[in-house]
């Protein structure tokens, strides 16, 4: 039975979809059958980052409407047999997909996969609420910036209020040099503020942008760069392997930015 994990962020533009594509590909390369679902109806981008946009003919809504068979809507990745992509709807469709519909579709495939990763829309509106209702676990992706941390804290509170107890953290786009000069929050700062389990730290790199524009997850590069290694090790920790976080020059510098964000964080608020 699959682990159904929603990958979310709160703030848009933090690399959530890039993280979904790379973690999914890494899990598949490790031998785990993995299905990726893009829950951002109308603004689907996960297919672009996987290089699968031209292969989409049918969607999950077509399956529910009995326009096609289930296997016709699921796209198998040609580079990695263990990875598949399941588009919920066409980008031209503006009708929202309900949580009941997503749950029904997941129920059809849950026995076939070890991991089902749901790429949640950014923000905390209806699309986000729909996505998290279908998951058993969550990964929150943040960048070490005040707005991202503030929004992530809000998202964590909502996830907890929905009964999702297993919530992991990925810190994306960290820059060691900026941390050392106190111009960016450190790993310790972020984890102390958010208080959830850290499973991955991904360094910032232009190579991620280049790979994304090519529709190639960076973990597929023959010569692994630091972000690719970081995504691979994150996937291994997510699966339960006891391995250390990637050492980015011991990013543990205390940062005064932490005092700025303190006023935004109030876990006593009701969600």
Shape: globular
CATH superfamily: P-loop containing nucleotide triphosphate hydrolases
Please compute the radius of gyration using only Cα atoms.
18 Å
Strand order of the largest sheet: 3-4-2-5-1-6-7-8
Provide a descriptive summary of the structure in words.
The protein is an alpha/beta fold. The protein has 12 helices and 8 strands. Strands 3-4-2-5-1-6-7-8 form an 8-stranded mixed beta sheet, sandwiched between helices. Helix 1 packs across helix 11. The longest helix has 16 residues, at 146-161. The chain starts with a strand and ends in a 10-residue tail after the last helix. The model is unreliable at 250-264 and 266-271 (pLDDT under 50).
Outline:
The protein is of the alpha/beta class and 271 residues long. It has one domain (3-264): P-loop containing nucleotide triphosphate hydrolases (Rossmann fold, 3-Layer(aba) Sandwich).
């Amino acid at each position: 039975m699959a682990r159904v994990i929603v990958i979310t962020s709160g703030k848009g533009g933090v690399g959530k979809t890039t993280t979904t594509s790379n973690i999914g590909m890494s899990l598949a390369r490790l031998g785990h059958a993995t299905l990726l679902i893009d829950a951002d109806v109308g603004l689907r981008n996960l297919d672009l980052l996987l290089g699968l946009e031209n292969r989409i003919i049918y969607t999950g809504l077509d399956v529910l409407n009995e326009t096609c068979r289930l296997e016709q809507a699921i796209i198998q990745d040609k580079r990695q047999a263990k990875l598949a992509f399941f588009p919920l709807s066409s980008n031209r469709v503006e009708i929202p997909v309900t949580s009941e519909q997503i749950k029904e579709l997941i129920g059809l495939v849950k026995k076939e996969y070890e991991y089902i990763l749901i790429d949640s829309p950014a923000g905390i509106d209806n699309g986000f609420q729909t996505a998290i209702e279908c998951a058993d676990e969550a990964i929150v992706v943040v960048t070490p910036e005040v707005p991202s941390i503030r929004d992530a804290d809000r998202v964590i509170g909502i996830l907890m209020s929905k009964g999702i107890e297993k919530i992991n953290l990925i810190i994306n786009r960290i820059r060691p040099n900026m941390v050392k000069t106190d111009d960016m929050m450190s790993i310790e700062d972020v984890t102390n503020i958010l208080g959830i389990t850290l499973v991955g730290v991904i360094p910032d790199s232009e190579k991620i942008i280049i790979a994304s524009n090519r529709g190639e997850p960076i973990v597929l590069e023959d010569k692994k760069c630091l972000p690719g290694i970081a995504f691979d090790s994150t996937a291994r920790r997510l699966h339960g392997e006891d391995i250390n976080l990637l050492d980015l020059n011991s990013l543990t510098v205390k940062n005064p930015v932490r005092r700025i964000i303190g006023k935004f964080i109030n876990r006593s608020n009701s969600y």
